[in-house]
Write a structure and sequence with these properties.
With 154 residues, the protein is α+β, with helices and mostly antiparallel strands. It has helices spanning 2-28, 34-44, 48-52, 68-79, 85-96, 112-120, 147-153; strands at 29-32, 64-65, 100-101, 106-110, 125-128, 131-136. It has two domains: 2-63 and 102-153, no CATH class; 65-101, no CATH class. 18% of the residues are buried.
Length: 154
Amino acid sequence: MVYLFRSKIKLKGVVETMYNVENLVKNEILKCESGLIELLLKVGCENSEINQAGYSIDMVENSYKKNEDTQNRIDELEELEDITEEQEEELEELKDEEEECQEIFEWWSVTKWLYEKLLENGEPCLYADFGYYWGRTTTGQAINMDSVISKIAE
């Protein structure tokens, strides 16, 4: 009986999270703008007027990030209270390691609120004169299955 009760509580939490994710996707993600943004980024490299409007590959925030394993090790070492000289050297080497360019598969128009949350979570984003855009680094699945969306919805 207790196990069944705990299962219901756990299931209720999963259902609430799913509901939050669906609402977030429905209300905060406006529409797919992949074709438009890709074209503007391509032309922006050649046209200074478009570049001034904010459509430049240099304007994409969080386009580079550390490998996830590397970042986890950095976080682990930074949390240590008593760090050895060897660990300190490892930490410096890891921090100096080159960041990887995030591959963007889709561009989505999003609200300002979601834009800020995505930036906080290390997602590539672009703000330009015409709005806020998220550079989605996954494809082939529904947006509500993206881990970053689930994390924000919690």
